[in-house]
TrEMBL record, chain A:
Belongs to the intercrine beta (chemokine CC) family. Residues 26-86 form the Chemokine interleukin-8-like domain. It comes from Ictalurus punctatus. The keyword Secreted applies. This is C-C motif chemokine. GO terms for biological process: defense response to bacterium; immune response; inflammatory response. The gene is LOC108261059. The keyword Disulfide bond applies.
UniProtKB/TrEMBL annotation, chain B:
Gene3D superfamilies: Rhodopsin 7-helix transmembrane proteins. The keyword Transmembrane helix applies. Residues 63-351 form the G-protein coupled receptors family 1 profile domain. This is C-C chemokine receptor type 6a.
């Protein structure tokens, strides 16, 4: 019986330790795609959600200036268009920076 | 960040600048990401882990260790049922040892690393499968002993060898079903899986021309990035097809092999047993029928809700429900899972301690342990030989009472 109560004590010890390490994690996954479209000038950026890890569908998450996130279907043409436009914007930005560096 | 999933949130934003209100109109039918672990579910899970799972683990550990000790000291595994009962107890003990370690790792961010994630999840899965499959084997054994009594009587002595083979097959198939878990479970930070986060910000220059500026918005996107990085132990795949297939296959296998198949076997075997018992003219038959019904009923009560929730979750995995529906499904999974865990501390009562013979052996073990403890203390004063003499005499009495048969005595 001694070894059993020893194990029980070990377990309680583990639990009390874990009591102090409590924290809640919050990751967000898209579960469905939005039906509407989002004008590209409202989009600040995007992130890619893949099925490879914790989420169950592939999706593009558009981040807007209003601080919202919108789930979009990556197979929709307007979504790929928006991403291309955003990429162009990024290139233009890099060019701008380079020119500034050269001028200075 | 907190209000993006809230559809009523656009009311108070009407005072914002034009752009935002235009955004609100667009967002009338938009979908935003759902929290994986919303705070309500997380706290329910936390309290269940601390108060319910700990109790299940302690009771399950004590009960199953007592079964193993009884077999180890006195009741040599002399029938098929004994071999199965011992294996069920071993599987259950490993399960209740792995469970608190998983809970602890989960809450300490899987600090032990990738191998602990794979190993603990693997051990958990192996014992889940083997425990349930062995219960199906026990039902098959009882079917052979009672319904096919005449036919199986000749083979009963050689059955012991078969039971070892069957146990080996059960453990191997449990290992085989766990292989995907070993292969694809990893410890990682979920944030890094949302890759290529590109963000831009338009700011107005001094000459009022809008300029797009690249900003590192990760800090604003994830408000708790100042805290310690969160890690999970979950599936991670390299390509779409494997991901899709495995995310359906692994829980489906759990429902099919870990519930439906054993339920079918138990349903067939025990209903045949009950019919045979009801036809027999034995004064103890009603008690036997009651025991069989309890065994089946407890199995269904413990495992049906969880497997139903799991099945529902598989069906709506890819064609998603809304965030609220998803949250409810997750809550149901958490609650019913605890019920399924409860089964491993009921097994010793339902299968081992319900048998009269097993109870007698257990009583002997307890008495001897008690005497051993007493004599251990006394040994410092008196000689040790008395206790050993006592023990050996006990054993000889026990072995003289051996008989050949199954322990299906109730």
């Amino acid at each position: 019986m001694a070894q059993i109560s020893g194990a029980a004590v070990m377990f309680l010890l583990l639990l009390t330790v874990s009591l102090f390490c409590q924290d809640t994690a919050a990751w967000a996954c898209c579960r469905r795609y939005s039906k509407g479209q989002l004008p590209v000038h409202l989009i600040r950026g995007y992130s890619i959600q893949t099925i490879h890890a914790i989420c169950n569908i592939n999706a593009i998450i558009f981040h807007t200036y209003g601080g919202r996130k919108m789930c979009a279907d990556p197979t929709q043409p307007w979504v790929t268009d928006s991403i291309q436009k955003l990429t162009k914007r990024a290139w233009a930005l890099k060019k701008q920076k380079k020119e500034k560096l050269i001028l200075n | 960040m907190m209000d993006y999933g809230n559809e009523t949130s656009y009311d108070y934003q009407t005072s914002y600048e034009n752009k935002t209100s235009f955004e609100d109109e667009i967002f009338y039918d938009y979908e935003s990401p759902c929290d994986v672990d919303d705070s309500g579910n997380a706290s329910v899970k936390y309290y269940l882990q601390v108060y319910v799972h700990s109790l299940i683990c302690i009771v399950g550990f004590i009960g199953n260790v007592l079964v193993i000790l009884t077999y180890a000291f006195y009741k040599r595994t002399k029938s098929m049922t004994d071999v199965y009962l011992l294996n069920v107890a071993i599987a259950d003990v490993l399960f209740v040892v792995a469970l608190p370690l998983i809970i602890f790792s989960e809450q300490s961010n899987w600090a032990l690393g990738d191998w602990s994630c794979k190993l603990l999840r693997g051990v958990y899965s192996i014992n889940l499968y083997s425990g349930i499959l062995l219960l199906a084997c026990i039902s098959l054994d009882r079917y052979l002993a009672i319904v096919q009594a005449r036919r199986s009587f000749r083979f009963r002595s050689s059955m012991l060898v078969y039971s070892y083979v069957i146990c080996a097959v059960v453990w191997l198939s449990a290992l085989l079903l766990t292989l995907p878990t070993f292969m694809f479970y990893e410890r990682y930070a979920p944030r890094e899986t949302f890759n290529m986060s590109m963000s831009y910000e338009t700011v107005t220059n001094s000459d009022s021309t809008p300029v797009t500026k690249e900003t590192k918005t990760l800090a604003t996107e994830v408000p708790d990035s100042t805290q310690q990085e969160q890690y999970v132990c979950f599936f991670r795949f390299k390509d779409n097809n494997t991901a899709k297939r495995m995310k359906v296959l692994v829980p489906s296998a759990q429902v099919a092999v870990g519930f439906c198949f054993p339920l079918l076997v138990m349903g067939f075997c025990y209903s045949s047993v009950v019919f045979t018992l009801l036809r027999a003219k034995n004064f103890q038959r009603h008690k036997a029928v009651r025991v069989v019904l309890t065994v089946v009923l407890v199995f269904i009560i413990c495992h049906l809700p969880y497997n139903a929730a799991l099945f529902y979750d598989i069906i709506y995995m890819f064609s998603g429900s809304d965030c609220e529906g998803h949250s409810i499904t997750q809550l149901l999974l958490i609650l019913t899972e605890s019920l399924a865990y409860l089964h491993c501390c009921l097994n010793p009562l339902l299968y081992a301690f319900i048998g009269v013979k097993f109870r007698n052996h257990f009583r002997k073990v307890m008495e001897d342990l008690w005497c051993l403890g007493k004599s251990y203390i006394g040994a410092r004063r008196t000689s040790r030989a008395t206790s050993e003499a006592y023990l050996s005499s006990r054993r000889s009495v026990d072995s003289s009472g051996y008989e050949n048969g199954t322990s299906f005595t109730m």
